[in-house]
Amino acid sequence: MLRKISIIIVLLTALASAAFGQSAQLKHNLSRAVSLYKFGHCIEARTELLSLRSKLSPVTDKAAIERVDYYLALCDAELKMADADSRLKRFLATYQGSIFTNEVQFTLATRAFMFEDTATAEAELQKVNYKSLSPQQRDRYDLRMGYSRFLSGDYNEAEHFFKRIADNSDYAEHATYYQSYIAYTRGKYDVAREGFNSLLKSPQYRDLMPFYVMQIDFKEGKYRNVVEGGDALISTTTPEQAMQIERIMAESWFQLDDYTRAEEYMSRYKAHGGEMGRVENYIMGYSLHRRTLYDKALPYLREACGADDLLSFLDTEKKHRVEIEVVPSDTYKEMPGYFYCDQISKSMTGGSYYYVKDLEGFNRKIWICPVTLCVLGEYPRYIYIKKK
């Protein structure tokens, strides 16, 4: 009897030892696979995990299987495998309530951003428990949510997320760029300039920032800064940006009354494929006109903004018809109820330029064509106008 009991004990001990040995080996293999993943060796990690997965029992190794499936899903995502999303979703469906759920959900959302599916990405991110993320993951979350709201035009919400990103974060420069751009669109040029200048040493943004700073100079009327730095930027930027700089420089020289340079840069802008709208045609035509190149100026002036724009502005009821009372005068006079056009320059064949004054919302230059000579016999020094 004692002999039988001894044999049973030996057998149980042997089985326990074998099981312990197998468990220890399992733990070692899993630890090795996880280590490979964390060091970025995802292909090797995935091979180890697949081998380990085939040896696990769904009855006795449930916790290990869950952990292996978790790292397999992460490996597939890192390797950008075609079925990575399917594996991530399968994990979420199979292991509901898992301690790994939040990480897998976050990974699924970031993959959607990678494929520029912002609607899906934002929907997936909203399922993530923000407080359970690591500090670095929170910054990634805020950057992606901010970017999504930025693309949709919801700048207030975008700022909310960008402002949560720490200054020492790996994503701080991205947040600064978008916040500065938002400030620029709102006309907060001091804030935008400070942000863009802070990125002048950024490896990712430094090549773009001088162009943005130039645009702020232009918006603020610092035309001398624009023309002094423009040529250097043109030689170092992309053809598309170079064309935009030529356009900005043309208008800056125009505002500085250097019509030769204005025409030069607008010609370059046009030659490089720039679109000639009313403002561009006006700058070109007016510049040529001031240089007494009337024949060259006329085609541009015909395309430029003129008296028809003024009439369209006065047509508040959009009836495509407006009646006005016109009083020409060679001298300035006080005329209550009237706004007036103050002559800037004129020529027999090139028409006359006037600046519209005392008309709220329309204080700018217009061009009046030579037909005026047939109607009034001259280009009056002042033209007083009242809508009937």
Features:
388 residues, alpha+beta, five-stranded antiparallel sheet, 18 helices, 62% helix
Describe the structure.
- By secondary structure, this protein is an alpha+beta fold.
- Among the domains are: 30-133, Tetratricopeptide repeat domain (Serine Threonine Protein Phosphatase 5, Tetratricopeptide repeat), CATH 1.25.40; 308-387, no CATH class.
- 62% of the residues lie in helices and 8% in strands.
- It has 18 helices and five strands.
- It has helices at residues 2-38, 42-55, 62-78, 84-94, 101-114, 118-125, 135-151, 155-162, 172-185, 189-198, 209-219, 223-234, 239-255, 259-271, 278-290, 294-303, 307-314, 371-376, and strands at 324-329, 339-347, 351-357, 365-368, 382-387.
- The protein has a five-stranded antiparallel sheet.
- The relative contact order is 0.04.
